[in-house]
Amino acid sequence: GTSPGDTHSLSGRRRPRSQRATSDTPSDDDNDNQPFSGIASSIIQDEYVQSRYPSRPAAFASTPTRLCRLTPITAKGTSSFGKRHNKTHTLCRRCGRRSFHVQKSTCSSCGYPSAKTRKFNWSEKAKRRKTTGTGRMRHLKEVHRRFKNGFQTGTPKGARGPESQ
């Protein structure tokens, strides 16, 4: 049971003219509060704000502020981030990470081109990742092997051939 005063959206009745959307309630045709809708809002990159001192004739002084003229401003937010297509960091020659700042010419990870490698005592886990033994250790593996044999040099005794007296 619906009473005659109900205005349900699925009922086939039309609302009386007095109950229809007025200027206080927003409707689909009311685009005063949004300057662009649909595809136009996604295409336009500039952000718009209401001008602080709109130039309106004195006759329209009592009209609401939403009818103010919209002025484009330089967007510092989302639309600016889409225009960045130059890389600030490139590969470092020393550590191989993409941490070498092109304009500063310094690596943010290892500190290249300074002679000392960048490391801090507050970054204990980072020191563990970069310390000796995490890489190939081409030279130190050989030094350790030679240490076990007492750093012997020359050819071994058996390879010299028979000893002649």
Fold and architecture overview:
- The chain is α+β, with helices and mostly antiparallel strands and 165 residues long.
- The protein has a three-stranded antiparallel beta sheet, with no helix packed on it.
- 2% of the residues are buried.
- Among the domains are: 39-78, no CATH class; 86-131, N-terminal domain of TfIIb.
- The protein has helices spanning 39-43, 78-81, 124-130, 138-148; strands at residues 47-50, 70-73, 89-90, 100-101, 106-107.
- It has four helices and five strands, in the order H-E-E-H-E-E-E-H-H.
- The model has no long low-confidence stretch (mean pLDDT 78).
- A hairpin with a 4-residue loop joins strand 4 and strand 5 (106-107).
- Keywords: Metal-binding, Ribonucleoprotein, Ribosomal protein, RNA-binding, rRNA-binding, Zinc, Zinc-finger.
- This is 60S ribosomal protein L37.
